[in-house]
Amino acid sequence: MDIASPPDPTRISPQVRLGRLDAELAALIGLLAGNGLSLVVAAPVTSRGAAQELLAALDPDRSPVDLDALGEGNRALLRAASLGAGFAGTMEATSLDDVFERLRRAAGLTDDELSYLGVVVVLDGEGQVDIAHHVRPIALDANGHVQKLGPAVLAARDRSSRRLEHFAWGIMPELASRIRWKAGDLEAEVDRRRDSVAHASGHPS
After folding, report:
1. How far apart (Å, rounded) are the C-alpha atoms in residues 71 and 68?
2. What is this structure's pTM?
3. How far apart are alpha carbons 116 and 96 in whole angstroms?
4. Domain span at 194
5. Which residues of 108-128 are buried (b: 16+ CB within 10 A; e: fewer)?
């Protein structure tokens, strides 16, 4: 297992203190992005600045791209992602469906191409993570049949408590497979990084 260097906790901790996300989601997304999975942070126009700041904190090693400005270039970007060359980008959107629709209109992308978006984080109008998805890529099963699974929710903000509810535990083996890790190793490393970020942000777990 090749563990990517953990991000500096002081880089993401301000985002946690601002309430944009919590230490657990920061740890998971930072780890997935650090091991090559594409990361998109989408937000309404009022939160574009927050989206850029969050992306820079979660994925500091890749140069961010503005998906709204790429047009047809998005097709080449996703083709590269299908071959393992992940990217980090922002765009204006208010939901995952909105992300899909805007990219279809801008570049005529198919559902198969869109399946390589990786992790898509959607911010609300206040710049907080509203929901985070794992977009599952098309794949072949053991018999060579094409498998198309819908996106999975990694975390979503509860409307009453305004706290993030986490669901990634249910697909941890799948997430681990995407970065070529064992599920137990991924869980242990997420826990370690969560504790580090929580301590740095003043919110010990």
Report:
1. 7
2. 0.93
3. 13
4. 9-201
5. ebeeebbbbbbbbbbbbeebb
Counted domains in the chain: 1
CATH at residue 128: 3.40.50.300
Query: How far is C-alpha 174 from the geometric centre of its chain's CA atoms?
Result: 14
DSSP string computed for 15-60: HHHTTSS-HHHHHHHHHHHHTT--EEEEE-GGGHHHHHHHHHHH-T
Instruction: Kindly state the DSSP code that residue 136 receives in the 8-state scheme.
Output: P
Phi and psi at 13, nearest 5°, equal -60, -35
pLDDT 10s per residue in the chain (205 long)? 554 445 567 789 999 999 999 999 999 999 999 999 999 999 999 999 999 999 999 999 999 999 999 999 999 999 999 999 999 999 999 999 999 999 999 989 999 999 999 999 999 999 999 999 999 998 756 666 677 889 999 999 999 999 999 999 999 999 999 999 999 999 999 999 999 999 999 876 5
- Domain membership flag for residue 4: no
Residues facing 121 on adjacent strands: 41, 132
